[in-house]
Amino acid sequence: MESYDVIIVGSGPAGMGAAFSLIKSGKKARILMIDKAPYSTGGMRNDCKMNFTFPIGFPLEYWEEDMANAYLAQVIEFLKPDIMPKSNIETYQARATRLGCSLLEIRQTHLGTDGGLELIKQLQQKLRQSDVELSLGETMLSIDNKAKTITTDKRTLGYRTILVAPGRQGFHFLQEVMQSLDVPFVDNIVDVGIRVETRIEHYPIVRDYYDPKFYFKEKVRTFCTNSGNAHVVREKYATGRGDIWYSVNGHAYAADESKNNGLVNFALLKTVRFTEPLASGQEFAEHLGLMAALMGGGKPLMQRVGDFRLGRRSKAATFNGDLYDFKPTLTGASPSDISLAMPSKILRYIWSALKNLDTIVPGILHPSTIMYYPEIKLYANKPQYRDEHFQVAESVFFAGDGAGTSRGITGAWASGIRAADGMKDYI
Ligand SMILES: Cc1cc2nc3c(=O)[nH]c(=O)nc-3n(C[C@H](O)[C@H](O)[C@H](O)COP(=O)(O)OP(=O)(O)OC[C@H]3O[C@@H](n4cnc5c(N)ncnc54)[C@H](O)[C@@H]3O)c2cc1C
Question: What is the Å distance from ligand 1's center to 181 Cα?
């Protein structure tokens, strides 16, 4: 059996943050990073727009501002981001404030899906040069923390300390790991909403601020704005029983201006927190996802704002020519009526936020604007951590979106560094 001082499961930003922090510490350690995907550096393959201002990407239950800023400084030192300029922010902020909403000014950079792939290549090369073994296409299946071993689909591996950072798609897997380690957890929070797609001239703020972060009443916010060569995509999820549903998402390419489609997309999400009786956010999300899949013939739903306002479903014809002058970039979605699938309370708050947004940036409620549903963020596993380094059991650490310690690339990277600070005690 091969044994390592450190095993890192997941090559996303959380795993990367931990690996580079351990390398920098100068500790002599044999490090292995595995990832089930054959390529990967996790979510950095998608759009790769990075936010460098607290609290974006930092769940407040785990991060105080001072601590987050200290870790963010390390992320910045490593990634050396090119912060994008912004303009006219005060004007938008004043309009938002008048409506009781706010616009956060965030330091951002945008590499695009293509730029992200380039960065990933460099990161993987750097890891290898630093003697970190990288095993892609290898999946962790289970852990035995008494024997200090994990089983993968290829072999059994020994460790002194391990970081499990499987991202949002590892949500189920992480719950299995927690059950086998007897780690108590709840997943009582989930974000549910829509993805909006429209022409840039109907949401021109993106020319001033690439990914504007608006906060509305009732915990609704804009999230992950993409523009230029921007596309709506769908992500496949399976329930514990193997039923398939989709969440929508979005990304953009940075290079090749000539391919710009003139469109923008962003998510509008409402945070739902369950208290009494405590419910699983994941199961709630799955029920919503399955309902949408049922209505959409196995696909997510899409509806034009014009149809929505008239209380009509959108039909295939609604997406062809005529007044509706742009084609949806997500072809795998079904024209439908999102109000039949979405809980009314969530829909009411989302619609109210959209009306406020249309007052702040007039145009977004143009009849051609498309609302895709559902966009769901399943990152609310909340394990009971033993310490501030996200240790869940003797020498076992979690980090990243799947473990609830982050909600984005930079937060995940910072979480990985924070976990590595605890892992160093076991090397
Ligand atoms: C379409 C899309 C666009 C996005 N755009 C942005 C953006 O622009 N900006 C931003 O900040 N965030 C964005 N995000 C979110 C961002 O990707 C995540 O916040 C971030 O990647 C989380 O990092 P992580 O390390 O926790 O997990 P991930 O990046 O998801 O990495 C986890 C890795 O673990 C691997 N893995 C899972 N299970 C196992 C297992 N059992 N064994 C071995 N390996 C396993 C996975 O293959 C994956 O590579 C986007 C997400 C998507 C899906």
Answer: 23
